[in-house]
Design goal:
- The chain is of the alpha+beta class.
- It folds into 2 domains: about 5-115, Rieske [2Fe-2S] iron-sulphur domain (Rieske Iron-sulfur Protein); about 140-345, Naphthalene 1,2-dioxygenase Alpha Subunit, Chain A, domain 1, CATH 3.90.380.10.
- It has helices at about 90-95, 150-160, 165, 205-210, 270-300, 310-330, and strands at about 5-10, 20-25, 30-35, 40-45, 60, 65, 70-75, 80, 100-105, 110-115, 140-145, 180-190, 190-200, 215-225, 230-235, 240-250, 255-260, 340-345.
- Bound molecules: FE2/S2 (inorganic) cluster and fe (ii) ion.
- FE2/S2 (inorganic) cluster binds near residues 47, 52 and 70.
């Protein structure tokens, strides 16, 4: 996991007052706790005494108590009570702390900042789910899906246009109706973007729901480090967006934290149901292929990334190196994504 970034730790609704919740970010266990004022805090889920997970303990107001010997920690991670020392002892002076993390809730997700000595504080808030250009009511749908594969392979999948007719045939594309694409990409501070006007939407159920007459749309696709893919579609006043955050859980395990939003047909309950089914189906299709790729990578991690449609995977790796160099304090770094690039493929 690259430090110096925000990561999704959990869906907000999972973290309830009085119920410490366990979460994991790249093998680093966290406990999430909601205080009496509703603010969520994150601590290392490992009691400083003998290592029992604090998430197995219980919340006492604005503190959490370990279930083994009752050490109690405030939400800055300082130990404020050691029962075996008796009342009046200065527990904080004698006892170590557990690490605490910066937390921000946004769009129904709990984001945790993985700090680094060079970047102890975040320079920006966590990425925000997009909003329609004309303010309007938005329905939101969220889901999380575990993937038994390393984070990078899952990230590659969401910035790869070439898999869509194969992995998502019938959903987002018709394999037998190939279309030539030419996209101009521009650089973002830690990522890249492509905007397309007059996109002819494929004749599939997903796009029929968005736009029954399939009139041309405007789409914007952003990739943001460390693994965030955001797409927006606009057709007239209809607007829809998705955000996929790939969260590292272990060396070979990740999670897809998915948000979908739209500004039309709020009254149509079946649309929510349909959107959930379609999103789940697409995410499971992606998960299946990424898990297969992970099996392949146990044999060898060699890849050929030489086509235009592979360029984003190359940029992703360069952006990782760029960020790692920033953390290391390397001088004179230049952004690894060209300011403007035109890429072509058939999907
Ligand atoms: S292990 Fe937590 S109090 Fe002893
Ligand atoms: Fe996909």
């Amino acid at each position: 996991m690259l430090e110096g970034y925000w990561y999704v730790a959990a869906q907000s609704h999972r973290v309830k007052f009085g119920s410490p919740t366990a979460a994991v970010l790249l093998e680093r266990p966290l406990v999430l706790v909601r205080d009496e004022s509703g603010t969520v805090h994150a601590l290392e889920d490992h009691c400083a005494h003998r290592g029992v997970p604090l998430s197995a303990g219980w919340q006492e107001g604005d503190s959490i108590r370990c279930r083994y010997h009752g050490w109690r920690y405030n939400f800055s991670g300082a130990c404020v009570e050691v029962p075996v020392l008796g009342k009046g002892s200065s527990a904080a002076a004698k006892s170590p702390c557990v690490q605490s993390f910066r937390v921000q809730e946004q769009d129904g997700w709990v984001w945790v900042y993985a700090s680094h000595e060079r970047f102890p504080k975040p320079s920006t808030p966590p990425p925000k789910f997009p909003a329609p250009s004309v303010p309007s009511r938005v329905s939101l749908l969220r889901m999380s899906l575990p993937v038994k594969a390393r984070m990078d392979l899952a990230v590659d999948n969401f910035i790869d246009p070439a898999h869509v007719p194969y992995v998502h045939h019938g959903l987002f594309r018709q394999r037998h109706v190939p279309r030539e694409k030419e996209k101009e990409f521009t650089r973002l501070p830690e990522g890249f973007r492509t905007v397309s006007n007059n996109v002819h939407l494929p004749n599939t159920i997903v796009f029929r729901v968005l736009n029954p007459r399939l009139t041309p749309a405007r789409t914007t696709i952003d990739f943001l480090m460390p693994g965030i893919h955001v797409e927006t579609f606009e057709v007239g006043t209809r607007w829809g967006a998705i955000m996929v955050v790939v969260t590292p859980i272990a060396e070979r395990a990740a999670r897809l934290d998915f948000t979908m939003g739209w500004n039309f047909l709020h009254w149509a309950f079946p649309l929510v149901w349909l959107a959930r089914i379609i999103a789940q189906k697409a995410l499971k299709q992606d998960r299946a292929i990424v898990e297969l790729q992970e099996l392949g990578h146990r044999h060898s991690t060699a890849m050929s990334l030489s086509l235009d449609s592979d360029t984003m995977a190359v940029w992703y790796r360069r952006l990782q190196k760029y960020h790692a160099d920033q953390l290391a304090g390397a001088p004179n770094l230049t952004h690894p994504v060209p300011e403007r690039t035109t890429l072509r493929w058939i999907t």
